[in-house]
Amino acid sequence: MNKCLHCGLKTQEVYSNSEKASDTDSGDYFCCNGCKIAYNIINNFGLKSYYRTRELKSGEKILKPDENVQNVDMSAFSHKDKEGNFNLNLIVSGIHCASCIWLIESILNKQDGVLFARVNMTTRRLVIKWNGDIKNGDEFVGLINSLGYKLMPYDPEIIKEIDKKEEKRLLLSMAVAGFAAGNVMLVSVSIWSSDKIIMGMATRDFFHWFSALIAVPAIIFAGRPFFYSALSVLKSKNTNMDVPISVGVIIATIMSLYETVNHGEHIYFDSAIMLLFFLLIGRYLDIKAKGKARSTAHDLLYLMSGSVKINDNSIHRVIPLKDVKEGMEVIISAGEKIPVDGVVINGKSEIDTSLITGETIPREICEGDEIFTGNINISSPLTVRVKAHGENSLLAEIVKLMENAEQGRAKYVFLADKIAGYYTPVVHILGVAAFLMWWLLLGLDWQPSLMIAVTVLIITCPCALGLAVPVVQIVASGNLMKKGILLKSANALEKIEQVNHIIFDKTGTLTLGKPKLINIDNISEGDLRLAASLASKSKHPLSQAIMDIYNGKVDEYDDIIEFSGKGLQSSNCKLGKRNWVFEGEENINDSIEESNKNEYMEIWLKNSSNEYAQFIFQDDLRADSNEVIGSLQKQNYALTILSGDRENIVKNTAKKLNIDDYKYEMSPKDKYKYVERLKSEGKVVLFIGDGLNDAPSLAAANVSISPSTAMDISQNTADIVFQGEGLKSVEDIIFVAKSSLNLVKQNFMIACVYNLIAIPIAFSGFVTPMIAAIAMSGSSLVVIVNSLRLTR
Amino acid sequence: MDILIYLIPIALLMGIIGLCAFIWSMKNNQFEDLDGAASRILFDDEEERDNE
After folding, report:
1. Which CATH number fits the domain that encloses residue A68?
2. Is B32 on the interface with A (CB under 8 A)?
3. Residue B15 to residue A121, Cβ atoms within 8 A
4. A46–B35 CB contact, under 8 Å
5. Interface predicted TM-score (ipTM) over 0.85
6. Structurally, how many domains does chain A consist of?
7. What is the mean pLDDT of residues A210-232?
8. Across residues A194-222, what is the average pLDDT?
9. Could you read off the pLDDT of A298-327 as tens digits, one per residue?
């Protein structure tokens, strides 16, 4: 079996290639003309090493170049800058590894006039800068399109920069805190390791002033994220972990300043700034993950920018998508992405709904059927009456639902914040008690009494408490990473532990999302060979499924014709839909039992001796689905399947997996509502899904998991992404979540014990900065060491 | 202890240089594409690649 040189799919096709590649011994194989064109472009530019360096992960959707790439007018998005050069900003889809960005940049840089071409691999955005004609941009875009990447122009002004600014502010705060922490510690170590008599009063004062000079501005600058958050939460009469952190840091700073001015002994600048530094690191990583999810949502909305062809009283015109009105007739040619929601008024075709539903098998549509934005028209032109577009289309609605759900999620109160709710008042009351006790009961002056009260507040500073959760999260995510599981939201594990209801999507989640030939034992070898020979010429998923399973030789037929939506034909042999293969032979058609017609996908083969063979396909379950589902049921989780698929197929899957609760023909909104309803009933929901149609539910669920074969948007929405063919990862995740929550609880215990010991010492007025530093770092260390047990 | 008068400003200066370098790189968008930068270093020069 040979593989297509460009896309790597199994193929029998040999598209003659005038420029024969020297390093292929068996000739040049391509699955289609598009791949051949792409290969030749790459070869002609001398960039063939791309094929050697690229990494194709198994199960990844491989870019399939179109055969006829037409240049699109990009001039509306090309901006002229001050030097007279043109700039074009594009969103690139189809990038799967670093070699892709190398390929795109190298090819563009070899074009005349291109001054600059750079792909940002994180955001998948491309900037091209060139001088000369504005029309050149169209060619550049056409060139990259013919390599199989899809380009979407965007206006950089519109993409919201708010997150970026927030991210930069945090990064800057972190840098300043890090710088100050380093320098203050430098001095602090000298102060701790010496005393007034050895180093002299003047030197110590100098050190104190030096620390103050660095620390105070840095604390004011770097502490702002915490101060603002604490203020806003206090305004809404709540408390979170930021409140004790802010109070602790501010009090430590003020008291240290007071000590510095009065030639005192104890300063705590180091503790305050170090705490801020560590906490800022965690916060920065958090915002980074969230920002990524949002940027893919925006990319999706850009799917809807562009132009469409409309039929205006039988005159065809091209207009910008934003000018499309309800009721207009839009013409969608074969291979085009559907830009609007609407009803088909003319034409018969198949559409690829995988973007929305995750289903791999194209759906047949004819007049009167509804189609949605983001689907792809496969076989023949359609005329569609517009019902909704842009902001009102299904795609936009999905993105909107998702954003709503993301906001709802922010309301979750984390364990650390819950504890802070008890912790903050207790600590602050203790501080006041210490002050009153020393001042009123023990007759000390008010200044030293106040000093003791402040020490109480500082030594109870929530170091260990603040670290209790993040350290476990870091260790747990490292642990999961080794198993190919990416923990995207740091708090996901905490939520998973509380889950009592698990919802699965069917296609692509419980199943592999690919059809598989299941009745191979009933098909004679000759029939299989014939079917494979016919199928080798087709890109239809069912043809690919036959090719996947067939490993023998195929025969070459010159006269194979593909009838789109029907099947393949060579002389009198036919492979395709039931009623097409049996055309004109009604009596035979009736005699074939139709019992399993709705549960499986089937195609029929008619061979040269007029015999018929049935090919049955099924979307295969992941190998360990049964086992994992069984073990989840044993752990008393309620399980539900929510699928957009038809009743029989869903029922069949549910029966095989022994799941009683299943819902079928669910729209993205139905799924979302179902999740919301369960949540309002007090259930804690884990959603596992992969399609774009699952994205709102993934966001709405308390916590969500997505396989790495999922749509980008789903992967970015989900809290956890797992690799590999098995569902076993789900079990692993739940196990790690449970054990890490145990550790978190232990850590909180340690922090409490530490406070129980430290508070009396502070109360009695014995604490020096040295003791405070040792006690605080000691408690943090114990917490960290305890968390590391998870790696074993 | 007089040496402190030199040493501390030197230490501080070094720290400030580091901080300024960081702020400079941030303003220059060096942190925009962390994934790409990690791989970019592995790209060979074009001449080398073609001769292989």
Report:
1. 3.30.70.100
2. yes
3. no
4. no
5. no
6. 4
7. 91
8. 88
9. 665 555 555 677 777 777 766 667 677 788
